[in-house]
Specification:
Blueprint: E1 4-5, E2 8-9, H1 14-42, H2 48-72, H3 84-98, H4 100-113
Antiparallel strand pairs: 1-2
Helix pairs in contact: 1-2, 2-3, 2-4, 3-4
Keywords: FAD, Flavoprotein, Oxidoreductase
GO molecular function: acyl-CoA dehydrogenase activity
Protein name: Acyl-CoA dehydrogenase
Amino acid sequence: MNRKQFGKPLSTFQTVAAQLAEVYIASRTIDLVAKSVIWRLAEDLDAGDDLGVLGYWVTSQAPPAMQICHHLHGGMGMDVTYPMHRYYSTIKDLTRLLGGPSHRLELLGARCSLT
């Protein structure tokens, strides 16, 4: 179902399109890095660098992407009867568990300085 505003699909507005692009870039990047980690582990290769990048991207980009999704869904994600609240809660918990983007970037930088 396409939400409409002023008789037009919401996705046709430039600001909305830019926000959707931000979400797409974040989700695509996280997906690609996760697949790289999985492939490296399956091939018995060191996945440490890719895990570091994945941790950083998840903690720095997933929370803002979820906020955009909440906004674009008209705040429906804040309602516990709508499944989006579970995804957002999971992302926030995962971000805290991983130590946040600054911590992940420090770890990644330290790993890079060793090579």
